[in-house]
Design a protein that fits this description.
Elements: E1 2-5, E2 8-10, E3 13-15, E4 19-22, H1 23-90, H2 97-121, E5 128-131, H3 132-145, E6 154-158, E7 164-167, H4 169-186, E8 194-202, E9 205-212, H5 241-251, E10 255-260, E11 264-271
Parallel strand pairs: 6-8
Antiparallel strand pairs: 1-4, 2-3, 5-7, 8-9, 9-11, 10-11
Length: 272
């Protein structure tokens, strides 16, 4: 039997449009193409699995290091709180804002270490009713207060004052703070740098948007931005920040996405 094909490639043979090809030859060429295509697809899958295995091994190594660091740091952090209590006693129980700030910083340091280990071990979150407006406000203050540089972008908030979401207070605060810190970083040196944080309710989901008017996410990493060890032109970055953010959001039953629209726009959706 003779059939006509548009175009078939096999080895070095090329059959142009309208060429007559014996049916047996055509069938062989098709199966040859499927076989070669199958090998290529398997090679891609193997490469992806190898990348994931390397990431898992890196995370395991990081987890071991963090575990040792945490063991060494817990003791001095606890001593800070003890010393604070002693200073309060010396002041006859009087209130001292500076001592309160030291206490708060020690608590945040402990929370950061705990959150990181939760990420490594994939620990489920513990949810309580939280005021999203208050969490965002605390996260912004945390970001601004933890920076040594004085060049801050203008941060504008538009969050409903009574929007309550079920969530883990520490992890949501760290998630938002991480995104705000990243936005401040990319806006350094920009005179009209601006960060907008807004929220509303859509289909029984609290939708939080964090956007900036910076250069946006580089096209070559935007599709893998939330994978571990993905970073771009950030000497102090570990490549874990956004991977942790994604895991925290997913652990809340939510999702996070990013797009470019006159800057980067991160969207977090959390179930109510």
């Amino acid at each position: 039997h003779i059939i006509f094909v548009d175009q078939v490639f096999a080895d070095q043979r090329t059959y142009k449009a309208g060429a007559a090809v014996n049916e047996n030859i055509f069938t062989g060429l098709v199966f040859e193409g499927l076989y070669n295509g199958g090998k290529a697809a398997q090679a891609i899958r193997n490469a992806e699995l190898n990348d994931k295995l390397l990431q898992k091994e890196k995370l395991s190594a990081v987890g071991q290091v963090i575990g040792m660091v945490m063991h060494d740091l817990r003791s001095p952090i606890k001593k800070i709180k003890v010393l604070n209590e002693m200073m309060r006693e010396d002041e006859d129980g009087g209130d001292n804002p500076l001592i309160d700030m030291i206490d708060k910083s020690a608590e945040q340091a402990s929370e950061i270490l705990d959150d990181f280990m939760d990420f490594i071990n994939n620990i489920p979150v513990e949810k309580t009713p939280l005021n999203l407006n208050e969490i965002v406000d605390e996260a912004v203050k945390l970001s601004q207060g933890s920076r040594e540089d004085k060049a801050h972008a203008a941060i504008k908030l538009d969050i409903p004052t009574a929007l309550i979401v079920p969530g883990d207070e520490s992890k949501l605060r760290r998630t938002i703070s991480n995104l705000v810190n990243n936005a401040i970083d990319v806006l350094q040196g920009k005179k009209d740098g601006e960060i907008n944080i807004s929220a509303n309710v859509i289909d029984n989901m609290a939708v939080l948007n964090i956007s900036d008017n910076g250069p946006g996410i580089p096209p070559e990493i935007i599709n893998t931005l939330f994978e571990p060890f993905v970073t771009k032109s950030k000497s102090t970055g570990t490549g874990l920040g956004l991977a942790i953010v994604k895991q925290y959001v997913n652990a809340h039953g939510g999702n996070i996405s990013v797009k470019n629209n006159n800057g980067a726009v991160f969207t977090i959706s959390l179930p109510l």
